[in-house]
Amino acid sequence: MKKKITSFLTVLIVLIVGIWQWLNPSEFLEVAEPKQEQKQISEPTNTIDTTINEKTSQSIDDIDLENPPRFENIRVSSLRSVDGDTFAFYTADGKEHKLRLLMVDTPESVKKGVSVQPYGKEASDFTKEQLTKEGVSLVFDKGEVVDNYGRFLAYVYIGENSLQELLLENGLGIVRYVNAGGDSLVEELLTAQEKAQDEKLGVWSKKDYVMQMKNGYYRYNEVE
Fold first, then answer.
1. Residue ranges making up the domain that contains 197
2. Which of 16, 120, 124, 150 might form a disulfide with 107, Cβ 3.0–4.6 angstroms?
3. Number of domains comprising the chain
4. pLDDT (tens digit, 9 = 90+) per residue, 104-145?
């Protein structure tokens, strides 16, 4: 008799569990492990050939600035330096256009309400000197060409030399503000930055001046 009761109870429990699983399937699903955290410093978002076409170099006055050609050298000749990572260029109609270097942040030297930061003047003087040389050209990446402040965003070349890389190699700036569509040459810039880091040049020579952020990039440990 006891065996029959035990068997009956076992069958009853199995039926109850089966009905409960049918009514509440989500509670019995296997819980997947969380995905591995993605690296903040990631591969550039290249989807097209980013080789700069020097043979099709055009003047800034020959292009549509609202939709400029990408990865082509665009010559500029009338310039005004602002600071290490910003300058102005002028078109034939006399209009001034501000431009900020893509992915490079130099210490502040003229920002209102901010004291001149270490190596800010050196970076500003370096950029000003480079812009006086022959063969200054702009190269636009595949993403946005204007930022929220109305400044154009581009790579800048002095002849065949990248102004961004020159600043980074000399420790006069850091790789920063890396955004999809404007990051095609980020690997080249990181390599230039690593050279200055290894040799402790410029901003990297001052202890605790540059600090690493959670996204893997750096910022100046100063009030900005």
1. 53-220
2. 120
3. 1
4. 999 999 888 888 899 999 999 999 999 999 999 999 999 999
